[in-house]
């Protein structure tokens, strides 16, 4: 992305227009209009104290999400050496906990935690598992498949996109047909596409890939799914899952998190050419990750100790109860939200319930309602939703993120508050259910 495009994207908040930024931005206000009222009373009036955090509008976009107090307090950890014994122990424990989150007990599986965004995960895959000239099949369910494909092209691989209609996903028969027509080194799937709220089914897909094209690596973009959707890394025979800290995992942004199978690491180790990246090179990072998990100091590039502490705290909280309970809570909240949306006479981008994510919902706007009118109205009620992102229909919908503590903390009232705000906000801008 050109520097000028990045600067433009950074300035955008709560708009109906598509953005040229990688991960779930919220849109921008119309030109020459102040974006939102700045008075704190707009979102503190009649608001119960939810935590020790300063009063703020509840962030219900598909990431970053609301964070638990203890996670944020971990960020204030005093400065310490990134190769000192205390931090090394924390980082090592964090890597081991990630194995539990991804549900892998295979000692050949390899976690990576690098300073960066979820987008860095694309580079790890494209720079290390693909080589120039390799064919890659990218299953397309929205904005992020386009970006993943562009990343592969950057490193010289040859991506082919298998596209589905907006709000749907490629079906198994057409995937099988594509795999039968060409030998693909890698197949990628976006588990939850942040631009559409479409959920892809992984277990059946993996069974298909291993049956039809067993040498093909199955790589999952789980940036908007890890922590809110069930992922059984070993049982489903996945080869890689990339994610980020600021969504379902519930940690501030700044960490690229991923897990790779022993099979994927063997593919990396047998590559014929050096990795195409220096910072994103597994050659440079693999011994670092292995040493940290073994509680041995090691160095390639400086990690963020404060973010690692926050991730450690978040993972400790997540793993303090069965993962099945966490995923059930997200499913229950999602069903409640989707029923409320239907009761309002609204439609989702993902029309098939089997394709609907549990951590976010993409909602078509009613005829005549515009995001630059509705989103600031919701802000006044203390709720922040995201604008549309899919390039073809960005002006026609909004996105509601519901993951992490907003779902799992019984002391919070985020979901009910958001549903009520959406109902009254639509009324305020003139919508009446038919």
From TrEMBL:
<dbReference type="GO" id="GO:0004760">
    <property type="term" value="F:L-serine-pyruvate transaminase activity"/>
</dbReference>
<dbReference type="InterPro" id="IPR000192">
    <property type="entry name" value="Aminotrans_V_dom"/>
</dbReference>
<comment type="similarity">
    <text>Belongs to the class-V pyridoxal-phosphate-dependent aminotransferase family.</text>
</comment>
<dbReference type="InterPro" id="IPR015424">
    <property type="entry name" value="PyrdxlP-dep_Trfase"/>
</dbReference>
<feature type="compositionally biased region" description="Basic and acidic residues">
    <location>
        <begin position="1"/>
        <end position="18"/>
    </location>
</feature>
<dbReference type="Pfam" id="PF00266">
    <property type="entry name" value="Aminotran_5"/>
</dbReference>
<keyword id="KW-0032">Aminotransferase</keyword>
<feature type="modified residue" description="N6-(pyridoxal phosphate)lysine">
    <location>
        <position position="247"/>
    </location>
</feature>
<dbReference type="InterPro" id="IPR024169">
    <property type="entry name" value="SP_NH2Trfase/AEP_transaminase"/>
</dbReference>
<keyword id="KW-0663">Pyridoxal phosphate</keyword>
<dbReference type="GO" id="GO:0008453">
    <property type="term" value="F:alanine-glyoxylate transaminase activity"/>
</dbReference>
<feature type="region of interest" description="Disordered">
    <location>
        <begin position="1"/>
        <end position="60"/>
    </location>
</feature>
<protein>
    <recommendedName>
        <fullName>alanine--glyoxylate transaminase</fullName>
        <ecNumber>2.6.1.44</ecNumber>
    </recommendedName>
</protein>
<feature type="binding site">
    <location>
        <position position="399"/>
    </location>
    <ligand>
        <name>substrate</name>
    </ligand>
</feature>
<feature type="compositionally biased region" description="Polar residues">
    <location>
        <begin position="39"/>
        <end position="55"/>
    </location>
</feature>
<dbReference type="GO" id="GO:0019265">
    <property type="term" value="P:glycine biosynthetic process, by transamination of glyoxylate"/>
</dbReference>
<feature type="domain" description="Aminotransferase class V">
    <location>
        <begin position="77"/>
        <end position="390"/>
    </location>
</feature>
<dbReference type="GO" id="GO:0005777">
    <property type="term" value="C:peroxisome"/>
</dbReference>
<dbReference type="InterPro" id="IPR015422">
    <property type="entry name" value="PyrdxlP-dep_Trfase_small"/>
</dbReference>
<dbReference type="InterPro" id="IPR015421">
    <property type="entry name" value="PyrdxlP-dep_Trfase_major"/>
</dbReference>
<keyword id="KW-0808">Transferase</keyword>
């Amino acid at each position: 992305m050109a520097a000028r495009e990045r600067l433009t994207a950074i300035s955008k908040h709560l708009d109906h227009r598509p953005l040229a930024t990688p991960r779930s931005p919220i849109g921008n206000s119309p030109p020459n209009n102040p974006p939102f009222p700045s008075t704190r009373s707009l979102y503190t009036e009649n608001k119960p104290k939810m935590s020790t955090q300063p009063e703020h509008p509840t962030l219900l976009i598909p990431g970053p999400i609301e964070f638990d107090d203890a996670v944020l307090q971990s960020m204030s950890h005093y400065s310490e050496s990134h190769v000192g014994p205390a931090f090394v122990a924390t980082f090592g424990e964090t890597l081991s906990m990630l194995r539990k989150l991804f549900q892998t007990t295979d000692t050949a599986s390899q976690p990576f935690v690098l300073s960066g965004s979820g987008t860095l995960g694309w580079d790890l895959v494209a720079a290390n598992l693909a080589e120039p000239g390799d064919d890659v099949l990218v299953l397309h369910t929205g904005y992020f498949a386009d970006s993943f494909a562009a990343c592969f092209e950057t490193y010289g691989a040859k991506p082919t996109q298998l596209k589905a209609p907006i709000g749907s996903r490629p079906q198994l028969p057409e995937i099988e047909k594509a795999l039968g027509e060409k030998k693909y080194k890698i197949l990628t799937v976006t588990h939850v596409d942040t631009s559409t709220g479409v959920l892809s089914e992984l277990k059946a897909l993996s069974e298909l890939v291993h049956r039809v094209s067993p040498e093909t690596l199955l790589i999952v973009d789980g940036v908007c799914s890890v922590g809110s959707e069930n992922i059984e890394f070993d049982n489903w025979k996945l080869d890689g899952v990339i994610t980020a800290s600021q969504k379902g995992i519930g940690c501030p942004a700044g960490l690229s998190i991923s897990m790779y199978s022993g099979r994927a690491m063997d593919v990396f180790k047998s590559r014929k050419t050096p990795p195409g990246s220096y910072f994103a090179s597994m050659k440079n990072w693999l011994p670092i990750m292995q040493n940290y998990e073994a509680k041995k100091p090691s160095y390639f590039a400086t990690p963020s100790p404060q973010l690692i502490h926050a991730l450690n705290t978040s993972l400790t909280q997540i793993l303090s109860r069965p993962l099945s309970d966490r995923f059930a809570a997200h499913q229950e909240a999602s069903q409640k939200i989707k029923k409320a949306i239907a009761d309002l006479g609204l439609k989702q981008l993902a029309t098939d319930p089997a394709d609907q994510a549990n951590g976010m919902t993409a909602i078509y706007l009613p005829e005549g309602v515009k995001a630059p009118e509705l989103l600031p109205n919701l802000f006044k009620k203390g709720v922040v939703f995201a604008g549309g992102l899919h390039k073809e229909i960005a002006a026609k919908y909004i996105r509601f993120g519901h993951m992490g503590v907003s779902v799992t903390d019984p002391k919070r009232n985020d979901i009910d508050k958001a549903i009520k705000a959406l109902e009254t906000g639509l009324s305020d801008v003139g919508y009446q259910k038919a």
